[in-house]
Design a protein that fits this description.
The protein has about 300 residues and is an alpha/beta fold. The chain is built from 13 helices and 10 strands. Helices cover about 35% and strands about 15% of the residues. The two termini are about 30 Å apart.
Length: about 300
């Protein structure tokens, strides 16, 4: 039985709603929303949508893009049809091409590039919601000098992975195909981060950890667009990109590591929290939690 069978998907939905029910915000004035995020295989960046939203009184139930009312974390906007009239919260494009969404209620998008390419208002909130993880989970005690965070496509890239064997340093390789809680904790327990995963960079920024990102073979879909989009908000006019060079080794890669300005991190967090607080203003018909969860699960809402 694979990760994406109907039975497995239904079990995950139920587990997510049970987890959401432990958040106080859900019982104060919580709502249930059919939402879309990538759920084709385990990946911590995509797992951020159902992990973060209940903290703000929103229980997402996964739907394909055409049936969703909310678009969550990730490079998923190309999946939305032009007629989409739901809400967007911190999502981004994968490719640097126009994808107008004139009917969407845009609460927030990942960066300036996505904002312009979908035709969102100039004053829309900007930032990747993954930056909120530091407001959800306290940073643990440091366990490693460096965390290597390869995208799932790069776990077999031997020159990159061999940096884990650098003498004199405690280096930990993070498996991104784990639940968000575990991956965030592992990244946050490092003193520096080298990543080919966007949300490895986002998590490092959330906790003020020096980080650098690089690109490897095979190339990711969209190339560097999602990184540039995100950094247009967090480090405007600058990048933490370091070209990978096996000859330079771990020390050479770390020369490109730096932190995002704390003022930009906090501003993005505040803007994203205010944006999700407007969800019921733009979608006033969302069913209330917990009763509405049964209707959404059954596909009646």
């Amino acid at each position: 039985m694979t990760y994406s069978t109907p039975r497995r998907r239904r079990v995950r939905q139920v587990r997510r709603l049970v987890a959401a029910s432990t958040r106080p915000a859900m019982w104060r004035d919580g709502v249930v929303v059919p939402a879309t995020w990538w759920d084709g295989h385990p990946n911590f960046g995509d797992d951020l949508t159902p992990w973060l939203l209940p903290e703000y009184g929103v229980a997402p139930v996964h739907r394909v893009a055409a049936k969703a009312r909310l678009s969550g974390v990730g490079s998923i906007l190309e999946f939305l049809p032009e007629s989409f009239d739901g809400a967007i919260w911190g999502s981004g494009l994968m490719y640097g091409k126009p994808h107008p969404l004139p009917n969407a209620a845009v609460l927030a998008v990942r960066g300036h590039l996505t904002r312009d390419l979908i035709g969102a208002p100039a004053d829309v909130a900007l930032g990747d919601p993954g930056i909120l993880v530091s407001r959800r989970a306290r940073r643990p005690k440091a366990r490693w000098d460096v965390a290597l965070v390869p995208h799932g496509h790069h776990r077999s890239h031997e020159p990159f992975m061999s940096m884990a064997d650098t003498a004199g340093l405690r280096v930990h390789v993070v498996n991104v195909h784990q639940p968000a809680t575990r991956v965030v904790r592992e990244i946050a327990a490092a003193e520096a981060v080298i990543t080919t995963s966007l949300h490895g960079l986002v998590t490092a920024d959330a906790y003020g950890i020096p980080a650098t990102w690089t690109m490897l073979e095979p190339p990711l879909g969209g190339g560097r667009f999602k990184f540039d989009d995100y950094e247009s908000v967090m480090t405007p006019g600058a990048t933490r990109f370091t070209a990978f060079d096996a000859e330079r080794g771990l020390a050479g890669m770390l020369e490109g590591a730096s932190t995002a300005p704390r003022s930009e991190v906090e501003r993005a967090c505040d803007d994203l929290e205010r944006a999700i607080g407007r969800l019921t203003d733009v979608l006033p018909d969302l069913p209330r939690f917990p009763g509405g969860a049964f209707g959404v699960l059954a596909g009646r809402e």
